[in-house]
Amino acid sequence: MKISGAKIVVETLIEQGCDTLFGYPGGQVINLFDELYLNRDRIRHILTAHEQGAAHAADGYARATGRVGVVIATSGPGATNLVTGIATAYLDSVPMVAITGNVPCSLIGRDSFQEVDIVGVSMPVTKHNFIVKNIAELADTIREAFRIAKSGRPGPVLIDIPKDVQTALCEFTPCPEPVEAVPMKLASEHRLDKAAEMIAQAERPYIYFGGGVISGDASAEIIALAEKIDAPMGCSLMGLSAVPSDHPKFLGMQGMHGHYAASVAEDEADLVIALGARFSDRATGKKERFAKNFSIIHIDIDGAELNKNIPAQLTIRGDIKDAVRRLTERTAAKTHPDWNKRIAELRAEEAARTEHSHQAVREKDCDACAAPCDKTGIPAEQRLNHFTIVDAVSAAAPADAVIVTDVGQHQMWAAQRYPLKAPRTFLTSGGLGTMGYGLGAAIGANTATGKRAILFTGDGSFGMNLTELATAVTEQTDVTVIIMNNGVLGMVRQWQTLFFDKHYSNTTLNRKTDFVKVAEGFGAKAARAANLAELQAALDAANAQHGPFVIDCIMDCDEFVLPMLPPGGSIDDIITEIK
Amino acid sequence: MEKQYVIGVLVSNISGVLSRVSGMFTRRGFNIDSLTVGETENAGVSRITVAFHGDEDIKERILTQLEKLHDVREVEVLDKHETVVRELLLLKVRNTAETRQDIMAAVEIFRSKIVDYSTTALVCELTGETSKIDAFIDLMKTYGIMEMCRTGIVAIERGENCLKTAVK
């Protein structure tokens, strides 16, 4: 029996295991939405307030589960509004399928109403994309899109479907199963042998891992390797949550705002084993200085990442889980007492520095600053700062909470300090650094897992896409929003303080926005916290209810993210204190 | 060390594929010396020949990035010594009584052909390696080039070796 293209889309999505998708209707997808209406008991569509929010929600859904996130938008502005969300997913290798409507084939290329060449626009930010002009190819194109999105290094795929293809009729043969990912390439025996030799000779091995360990489901394998060869581990921002934060071999995130011990340990290592990481400039600092003291073994599923940013002495292309397991098997157990002693020293040094910064922040009084805060009369131990906020939130959070961030200082503070327990519980825009990512992603993560999402955001980032509070209220999304409200665009301000003679150009927001009233206006619950007791009370209130809860945490505008490797600098230039 | 590489790329013959390939070069900051595309013996496959300058590192990055493109089926560096490389030139030169004989002689020596003749202009066709084409153009400048176009490099390996048409 012939069915419409719109129905083929919905049937194929269901066949591919899509239970929930995010989107926003419009003229060129009205047929698709009609099919979604008819099939609303088989597939759930979550209406967002803006297409960008829908794209971030599909991204959050995918990051929290490893499944392919699906987003749908109309032609023209609907499609272009997805672009930031798609680019965010692309830079962080998130499996996603984006479906856009377009004007009928006969109108394409004529600058028709709401026409845009979204295939052209999205080409550099998708793993691949399609425009389907022949309905006979529609079902297989969607299947292929899912296959591409989840094979190898995952990524977003866009399918543009002109309106006449949605309304045309065609035979449809369902597939019994979702398409399978293309089998991963496996690391060569010879190269793994060579890696084992290098590890055997190393006296100060260090494991540096990235997001590939999470998408490759290799957490247990890298922990086993670290324990067997007695190596400390550090990770990129994208690697966070792959290993429990309290694992004795784990030193935390390294790089521009990484943990002191992790960054220094890596520099003092004689061998760095890089697993599922791509040596982003934020992770390495100045390239020429970065690997001065150590050799590198680089293992990744994407051959194009090997030798791309930092040349390695040994490159191994292959599935990370399999490669690390086989590498561990052929590596003799070792201990490195001297190296461990040095690591312990670094940890102690870091702990002292952290305590010192905490002390300084706690006791710092307000000067005439831009923040809406007034610490007068608040005892030091009750003051809100990035230490007390992150600690209070983690203490109150359900054990299985999914942590989501926006982009800026709050993101780094959460990344540095929040104790993570399980993979896929820390969602953040690492590669693209998308302010406004968080709320959509939190909605997607909670929808996918049913677990409370905790969003760390700032007054800058939150302002970008807070309109998704409407979605969270409608869907009764369990998301606790922690606004670290310092009245400024803190990360840029930090750079202006350090490198631009305190010219605070356009970073002092000076806004009169009342986030509590804004949240209440959307129908969400909210509270303002000016001290620790108020924050703790608000967190308890948030946990005790369903739906979004916004906590506006008032803090000082001049807290810094430390340590910091200055842009273009290296470990030699590390800033650990600002006077 | 910088040198010129010539690569053969087999791609699915579908719309947009040229944008994807050329877009990869633009987006990642690689410069193209020449790029040609055309049909192959297999209707589903087109062949792109790209020439570019770069060092070993840039060459490797270009190859691995091209291999990642979904529509790219095969990529191979063509060894200059084992490859026939050709370009086609069409060049329109001013035809005057004073220069006609010299142009004719040059055409003869370069094994070029005159494919259009008028009292004021000659169109010459020349096939050959890039260096030969460059030399001919240099020579013709003396006589007044009115317009010209060249195809860019096409290249094919000598002997049995072929770019495989393995389907990804």
Radius of gyration of chain B: 19 Å
Assigned CATH class of the largest domain in chain B: Alpha Beta
Total DSSP helices of chain B: 4
For the termini of chain A, the CA-CA separation is 75 Å
Report the average pLDDT across residues of chain A: 96
Q: Main beta sheet of chain B: strand number and arrangement? A: 5 strands, antiparallel
The CATH architecture of the largest domain in chain B would be: 2-Layer Sandwich
Helix share, percent of chain B: 25-40%
Short structural summary:
The complex is a heterodimer of chains A (579) and B (168). Chain A is of the alpha/beta class and 579 residues long.
Key descriptive features of the protein:
heterodimer; A: 579 residues; alpha/beta; Rossmann fold; 3 domains; six-stranded parallel beta sheet; 20 strands; 16% strand; globular; B: 168 residues; alpha+beta; Alpha-Beta Plaits; five-stranded antiparallel beta sheet; four-stranded antiparallel beta sheet; elongated
What can you see in these coordinates?
The complex is a heterodimer of chains A (579) and B (168). Chain A has 579 residues and is an alpha/beta fold. Chain A has 3 domains: 2-171, Rossmann fold, CATH 3.40.50; 189-342, Rossmann fold, CATH 3.40.50; 366-557, Thiamin diphosphate (ThDP)-binding fold, Pyr/PP domains (Rossmann fold, 3-Layer(aba) Sandwich), CATH 3.40.50.970. In chain A, 40% of the residues lie in helices and 16% in strands. Chain A has 23 helices and 20 strands. In chain A, the strands form 4 sheets. Chain A has a 6-stranded parallel β-sheet with strand order 3-2-4-5-7-6, with helices on both faces. A 6-stranded parallel β-sheet of chain A has the order 11-10-9-12-13-14, sandwiched between helices. In chain A, strands 16-15-17-18-20-19 form a 6-stranded parallel β-sheet, sandwiched between helices. In chain A, strand 19 (525-529), helix 23 (532-543) and strand 20 form a beta-alpha-beta unit. The termini of chain A are far apart. In chain A, 57% of the residues are buried. The mean pLDDT of chain A is 96. The longest helix of chain B is centred in the middle third of the chain and has 13 residues, at 56-68. In chain B, strands 5, 6, 7, 8 and 9 form a 5-stranded antiparallel β-sheet that branches. Chain B has a 4-stranded antiparallel β-sheet with strand order 2-3-1-4, with helices on one face. Chain B starts with a strand and ends in an 11-residue tail after the last strand. Chain B has 168 residues and is an alpha+beta fold. In chain B, a hairpin with a 3-residue loop joins strand 6 (113-117) and strand 7. Chain B is 27% helix and 40% strand. At the A-B interface, loops of A face helix 1 and helix 2 of B.
